[in-house]
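Subject: Sanity check before I submit

Could someone independently write out the structure tokens for this chain? I want to compare against mine line by line before I put it in a report. The sequence has 339 residues.
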Amino acid sequence: MYNILPESENPLSIIKNDFDFRNTKSLKRCVESIIPEGKEEAKYYLISLGHGAGFGFFKTEALVTTIEEIPFVEGCSICYKSATDFEILWNIEFFKAFSGIKFELAIFNNCQMTLFENCVLFSRFITYFIATENYLALEMLNLKSMLETLIVRIKVKQSPENIGQIVYDNYLQSILKRISENSLNSDDTSLFYINLENYNDFFHKFEEIIGEILDLVDKNPDWIKEIRNKLPYIEATLPLIDFVEFLKSLQQDNFITISIKKMINDLLDSIEESMISKWARKSRKKLNGISLYFPPTDRLRYDEIYIFNRNLLCSEEILKPSNWDRLLDKVLFNPQNNP
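---
Independent answer below. Compare away.
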């Protein structure tokens, strides 16, 4: 963690580098240690670099510590650790650690972080959000360059949205450079810059839409299965589909009434407005920025990771049990699915 002091000759100062970021309590203590007393004008930025799988971040003992110096900040260096993938620091734990602080901008170099539920959860403490809908190479983000960009832009007092756009453009250029050099072995790369401000409202709109079609699913469960099975599968750890493509397919279906079609159209317009910048590799043009958990309908149960994460969200009353969960229950646990 670093404190950027724009008026200082050495604007980047290390706060603390020996916290254990693997547990919520320690992470929260670290966050509390950087909140300055009597400085309400302070702004906060979050950079997450490492493996993730949509619902959380892998954590274990650090294996390697890497240090890079920042040449124009005297006595300063970036220290970060590499670790193998085992336990998960859940997004809900991540959220708890940052309660009480609002980040102007968050940059996630973690896989599958634009899951719809994530965007709703993160909107409570993040305004602008840079992340991917599917996979990103761990070393894609140049942390040193990212911090240098933030220091320069914060010193000239640009708005958080403009800073985010510059960071996004630099991030995307590094991706394109690696693609041109054939050093990125992935067709699934994407990058999105999103304004999360209204995602809690989007959640309630989506709830209303799904609530309207639950009766249709009861009458004909095969109908929603056919929609899901025609959608392109997102290459990811979890079985994900593109949220916008799902809504578009729903909107075009003959089962949907005109009033529901209008509700879907309004939500699609709102999501499009929230996308400040977006890019997906040519082979993945169907990616629109937000993903949705919807496993193939021949599965007999959810992935355990989804059940656990959903239960955490519900028990904390951050997201109550949703109509989307009810729809999944009806489709995936329908007696017709059982052998």
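---
OP: Matches mine. For the report I'm noting this point. Residues 335-339 have pLDDT under 50 and may be disordered.
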